[in-house]
Design a protein that fits this description.
Layout: H1 3-14, H2 18-29, H3 35-41, E1 46-48, E2 52-59, E3 62-65, E4 72-75, E5 78-85, H4 87-93
Antiparallel strand pairs: 1-2, 2-5, 3-4
Length: 96
Amino acid sequence: MNKSELIQDVAERTGMPRSQVSTVVDALFNPENGAIVSALRKGENVGITGFGSFRTTRRAARKGRNPQTGKVIDIAASTAAGFTAGKGLKDALNRK
């Protein structure tokens, strides 16, 4: 499911116009200034009870190797986003 399909699905489920759903989806998931990204940038975790939680992890600088040439390269430190599924999501996926 891509973003457009997500918007369509939520619009059908809620009876809201697609334009309003699109605004809400952007407010949550926009990678530049969405609510989730903004909280993660501040160092906060974002927990949605029953669904899961988003958090950041710090990756230290390290040495790596170019797989094509075998040359050793420096990999800069970075921050990565992570998601852990909550119990409700896990249970929903494992129902038969």
